[in-house]
Amino acid sequence: MTNTEGKDDKIPTHIAIIMDGNGRWAQEKGLPRTAGHKQGAENVRPILEHAKEKGVKYVTLFAFSSENWNRPKSEVNFLVDLFRRYLNEDIKDLQKQKVNISFVGSRDKFPADIVERMNDLERETASFDDFHVVLALSYGAREDIIAAIKRIALDVREQKYLISSIDEKVVNEALSTRHIPYPDLVIRTSGEQRLSNFLLWEIAYAELYFTPIYWPDFNEQDLDIAIESYGRRERRFGKV
Ligand code: FPP
Q1: Ranges assigned E (strand) in the chain
Q2: Does the annotation mark 68 as catalytic?
């Protein structure tokens, strides 16, 4: 979709968040890691509401990476149950508020009931456009890029277009993020300063913001500070 090049707004149109530090948040309190995920899930709603109030239009949340399946089975099961509960219960509030909900990532790894729920939520909220929430579940940017390359290769083989006409737009249309604009701001909590295979193509020109705060403690004021930092930056998109 479109990017936000040339936009001089101080509020990012699209914020992508790597919600990191749930495990450490819990461990430092002497709690099991799963308690951190539970608290992390409870922190999603206030942050989304605040982002919407600030005038942000898209928020993408990295909730589960394709690599996270390799965590201990008990933690993976807990997270899958947490997503199930979130998609069946908590998300109803968003739906009532006419929020557009969509998913990126390989959903076929989830149990059928969760996949069905994802598909239903996308269909039921497809016409809403005021505020978009994108959940990255079982998502990995390299996987997504590989899937896009395969789609493009098939299209070329079927002579839908020539190799010479492959451009940024063609690649965008083949990615699972084709329905959202490029993120303007990426926030990663918990002090880690890396992207961990999140939206690599899409964030080529995004501003990056790292904070030591663990996700369960990241609050509305912290989001304001991240947005203010974004607003002070000069985005040149490679120009002078
Ligand atoms: C990273 O913390 C967090 C995750 C892998 C899971 C993210 C899930 C949530 C925030 C809760 C559910 C979200 C939704 C949308 C229902 P970590 O476990 O890697 O923490 P650590 O780095 O301290 O170990």
Answers
A1: 14-18, 58-65, 100-104, 132-139, 185-188, 207-210
A2: yes
Give yes or no: 20 in active site.
Answer: yes
User: Rg for the chain (alpha carbons), in Å?
Assistant: 18
pTM of the model: 0.94
**CA 85 to ligand 1 centroid distance, Å:** 15
pLDDT per position as a tens digit, 159-216 = 999 999 999 999 999 999 999 999 999 999 999 999 999 999 999 999 999 999 999 9
Tens of pLDDT, residues 52-75 = 999 999 999 999 999 999 999 999
Q: How many CB atoms lie within 10 A of CB 71?
A: 16
Max distance between CA atoms of the chain, in angstroms, equals 59
Strands 132-139 and 58-65: parallel
**Domains of the chain as residue ranges with CATH:** 14-140+181-231 (3.40.1180.10)
Count the neighbouring beta carbons within 10 Å of the beta carbon of residue 171. Answer: 16
